[in-house]
Amino acid sequence: MAVRGHGGRPWGPIRAESAEAETLARFMRAQVDASGKTLAVLAGEIHISKTQISDRLGGRVPDQEFVATLIRATIPEPRLRERRLTEALRRLEAAAHPAPATPPPPVTSAVELAELQAQQVETYKRLTRSLEQQNQLHEALGNSAKLVMVLLTMINKLERRITDLVGEREQLRAAHVAPDTLRQTQQQLARAQEQEQRAQQELLRTQEKQRQAEEVAALVQAQVDQLTDELDRLQGTTTNDTSARNVPSGPPGEPAVTADPIGDDIDQALVRITAVNDQDNQVLRRITHDVLPDPPPERVVRDISPDNLTALREAAQAAADVADQRTAVGLYTALVDAYKRRIGPEHPDTLATRSDLAWWRGKAGDAAGAAAALAGLLPIQERVLGPEHPDTLATRSDLAWWRGKAGDAAGAAAALTELLPIQERVLGPEHPDTLATRNYLAWWRGHAGDAAGAAALAGLLPIWERVLGPEHPGTLATRSDLAWWRGKAGDAAGAATTLTELLPIQERVLGPEHPDTLATNNNLAIWGAKAGDADGIAAALAGLLPIWERVLGPEHPDTLATRNNLAWWQGKGW
């Protein structure tokens, strides 16, 4: 039957002429799985077609150049790459000269072939479905782009019409015309003002729908890429032609003769716009449900009442409290959308929620996206709240943190160095936000090469314990950071001891699957190994990896780091 790799994508059966060739194929497939790269990506990097890669990983003994090229493309770490290349070449030599006494592996049975064919058909069906969804989303995006232009033009015309009607009304009043004539103008003015409000609401709704469609389209594209790679691995091919749906227009009708034909035309246009938005929202709801089996119901634009806002805010906070990062991102996204519609895009609550969303976006693995979101938020907070408002200062601190996580440790340290004296003056030296900035500053100074700066964490820990308590999450995080830098300074045994003491407290306070607890487990394995307990590290990391994959997802940076560490320590045994 088809064999599934670490990434969950199946391979076709191996049809090798010897056990040694089969062993080589499995080894090379494992390198591809560990890299997380699709065959399409590898084909572009090593300049060999997907079909040829699949064939050479399917049991046929490849040449040495292919083996070396594939190892270089799948293993970035130099020392591990060198070991894996040596092992691959050893297995290639064995496959090229198999032992005569080795019986050939059994031929794939008819049952296995039937299973493989059924799997190919199922994957093809899923890919076809995803491609259909892609077309529908593209049409929704096209509808949104057109409606934005139509609505902007309509709003501009309505503003001019309102100005003209106000002038006409004043002229009629000055001329003391018949009351019916004045009343008709006043009714047209009121109608135009109401139409402008409706057009503004539909514009906001259309823009939100456009953003959501782009977000869902990215998820569907990832699904298409994964399913295409599955078919490549199964050595199946497929094509799909789908036609975009047509947005139905309203039934034709004879225009009625009224006293306000311009207003009638605008009403009819708004009715059609609302219908298109309603239909596109139905598409978004359905596709979002298919792509995310349990999406928050508020994800698609709809009317938000105060009660729903409260429930949504509480749900988002509850997800954050248990570090359910993916759910938190979805709920905070919906909450930001709802706040923008109900209280305005620059209301302090909207801005604070945007900050929360950026934080959890970073925690979910998108550090660069979090930094970009906070960089866009900061100037608005400085203008609306003031440059020294606590929320503005908190955004500066968070921006520096995610800037560092995105790779700019020196820039993060410089930004925090500028921020710290402002927080000490505005908030006080022992305010939790000030302490957090001191913690971040020490961390990023260490990552930028300033070990002495990282040592400042030792002086910070007793302040955390006194101000927040010894079991506050911030205090526990500082203990974990301090242990890390103790190990980096050369005291691996001391780091392992500190983390051994910290782990049961985190498990009790935060929970055994909280990301901070998992990080401590991971670091304990690393420093324990460096302190001399290398035998148990591979087993410890192997136990942690499926938990990381379940809690954070297989592509989260922390999951990928654990997978790479596991591969490296497994390689130590060769």
Overview of the structural elements:
There is one protein chain. A hairpin with a 5-residue loop joins strand 1 and strand 2. The chain is an all-alpha fold. The chain is flat. It has a two-stranded antiparallel ribbon with strand order 1-2.
Features:
1% strand, mainly alpha, 574 residues, 5 domains, two-stranded antiparallel sheet, 74% helix, 434 Repressor (Amino-terminal Domain)
What general outline do the C-alpha atoms trace? flat
* Radius of gyration using CA atoms only: 30 Å
Overall structural domain count: 5
Would you count the extended β strands for me?
2
User: Helix content range of the residues, please?
Assistant: over 70%
Strand order within the widest beta sheet: 1-2
Quick overview of this protein structure:
By secondary structure, the protein is mainly alpha-helical.
